[in-house]
Write a structure and sequence with these properties.
Layout lengths: L1 E3 L5 E8 L3 E8 L5 E4 L4 H11 L5 E3 L5 H4 L2 H4 L5 E5 L11 E3 L4 E4 L2 E7 L8 E5 L6 E5 L2 E2 L2 E2 L7 H12 L6 E4 L4 H11 L4 H15 L7 E2 H7 L9 H6 L8 H13 L2
Helix pairs in contact: 4-9, 5-6
Length: 265
């Protein structure tokens, strides 16, 4: 499906690919620019481009994993530039422009801010569109609906810092994550914070959406702040008690315990 944002010419097309990935195309009708956010499957992306009559101009990679970069070289044709994280540039196929947190990038008549969100992988970045008052963040595997990515390469301190940065985005920010993991994430969230009414209400909403074959993505930062245990392990005593946080534990230690609890769930 496609979501035109209310105050700009940017349109986001969201579609399923591979087993549980979401693909995204960001299109500006005015400039005719189209960006692929990650490239899990070149064939699926090309079909979506053809269906809409859009021509790819940019590829925005969030991190180096194969299910995010696997279609880069096939989709990279004349005029297509590949952007990706500076700290993983040697692992991004076809990269042209290496990006670091804090940089800004002009696209579609607006500006996207690059966020460092390492933890899942060391150099993971997110693309935050918010200059025109519309707030959308394409965060790959850093933050999920009701969850976060596995900590394959980073440290609890790095990942916690990244998640705090995402948590500080405006409440109305739409969170476009890369996988439909919400049902599984909901089970873990309920196990560590069963007393959270907002969480229980959201889990019921997730159940209904999935029963109808509808995506649970995008979510809102406001929803994640209220219900996502990985954004709440510094504020919820219930979560802290259930994951074994003890007196003297830092917030990053608490996050690390939460991540380990999910790994073992």
């Amino acid at each position: 499906f496609s979501t035109p944002t209310s105050k700009s010419m940017i349109e986001v097309a969201q579609f399923s690919c591979l087993d549980d990935n979401y693909g995204y195309l960001i299109h500006c009708a005015e400039t005719k620019e189209t960006a692929a956010v990650d490239t899990p499957c070149a064939k699926t992306y090309q079909a979506e481009l053809d269906k809409r009559g859009w021509t790819l101009t940019h590829i925005f990679n969030t991190h180096h994993h194969w299910d995010h970069t696997g279609g880069n070289l096939e989709l990279k044709k004349a005029g297509v530039k590949v952007y990706g994280p500076k700290d993983e540039a040697n692992k991004i196929p076809g990269i042209d422009v290496a990006l670091d947190g804090g940089q800004e990038l002009e696209f579609g008549g607006t500006t996207t801010s690059i966020m460092s969100v390492g933890g899942h992988t060391l150099g993971h970045i997110a693309y935050h569109f918010g200059a025109d008052g519309n707030h959308d963040v394409f965060c790959g595997d850093a933050l999920f609906a009701l969850g976060c990515g596995k900590m394959f390469e980073g440290t609890p301190q790095q990942f916690w810092t990244s998640l705090k940065g995402l948590r500080e985005l405006p409440d109305e920010t739409r969170v476009y994550c890369a996988h439909e993991y919400t049902t599984g994430n909901a089970k873990f969230a309920a196990s560590v914070e069963p007393g959270n009414k907002a969480l229980m209400d959201r889990i019921e909403q997730v159940r209904k959406l999935r029963a109808e074959g509808k995506p649970t993505v995008p979510s809102l930062i406001s929803e994640e702040k209220e219900t996502n245990p990985f954004l709440r392990c510094d504020v919820s005593e219930e979560i802290r008690n259930n994951i074994g946080v003890v007196a003297g534990d830092s917030d990053e230690t608490a996050f690390g315990k939460c991540r380990k609890a999910k790994d073992n769930f």
